[in-house]
Amino acid sequence: MKFKKVLSIIMAVCTLIVSISMINVNAATTKYYGDADGDGLVSISDVTIIQMYLVGLSNLSSEQMKLADVDKDGRVNIQDATAIQKYLAGYTSGVAYVGKKYSQQTSTATQPTTQAPTQPATSAVDANGGYYCYDMANRVMEMMNENRAAEGLQPLRVGASLENTAEVRVKEITQRFGHSRPDGTSYTTAFDKVNYRWYACAENIADGHISPEAVMSAWMMSRGHKANIMDEEFTHFSVATYCYKGRLYWCAVFGQVWE
């Protein structure tokens, strides 16, 4: 939704939801790459298990490490979680070995379960039981500027104050999904809260999409959401991704300051 202080434009709110596909496997007899929690399913819960491991909130057994290392590079990292998400979203490329039968002979050595990542891709779990997914948010911003470049538009710059706005709003939409805040005020008050002197601002929100590619595809197919991404007026942006109760929430904010 885009607002101007001179002219307010009200856009339709679109709840963007994609279905999550799963594969059923017999965990007792056959193991599959991607089934990190060993429950016999390749699902979003496997992504959550890997993300919790990466921020030091859980350990993986040696067998879980091998199943989670879907690209078989000898490490469990955010690339493995992303490959599983792409697989669940129906992508056929970039999914490594997800869904393929696990073979002891072809697996590579894995990292010790106590080794922490050098650059955590997610934040620590907060008091609400959720956490931010930084790599996913960064990838969405990259794709937004790639789309703008393809149309000859200037890239958007990350606004420091807008980073806070996006993180606040993405947590708020877990309580109330829409362009009004939990207290009933407009989302634009979140811009005011960080003293962002906006002339024009907008936000895109979504939930349920399990990868940056999935949410960007949905936004680019929606006239209003695409218009915000490609708007020539905007100069700054930020994106936040928040995982809450196993579900991903997305918020992109855009702004132009008074000159």
Task: Outline the structure in words.
The chain is α+β, with helices and mostly antiparallel strands and 259 residues long. Helices cover 32% and strands 16% of the residues. It has eight helices and eight strands. It has helices at 44-54, 62-68, 78-88, 134-150, 160-172, 188-193, 212-220, 223-230, and strands spanning 2-4, 23-24, 41-42, 131-132, 157-158, 198-207, 236-244, 247-257. Strands 1, 4, 5, 6, 7 and 8 form a six-stranded mixed beta sheet that branches. It has a two-stranded antiparallel ribbon with strand order 2-3. Helix 1 (44-54) runs antiparallel to helix 3 (78-88). The longest helix has 17 residues, at 134-150. It is globular, with a radius of gyration of 20 Å. The two termini are 22 Å apart. The relative contact order is 0.17.
Helices and strands in order, then pairings?
Layout: E1 2-4, E2 23-24, E3 41-42, H1 44-54, H2 62-68, H3 78-88, E4 131-132, H4 134-150, E5 157-158, H5 160-172, H6 188-193, E6 198-207, H7 212-220, H8 223-230, E7 236-244, E8 247-257
Parallel strand pairs: 5-7
Antiparallel strand pairs: 1-6, 2-3, 4-7, 6-8, 7-8
Helix pairs in contact: 1-3, 4-7
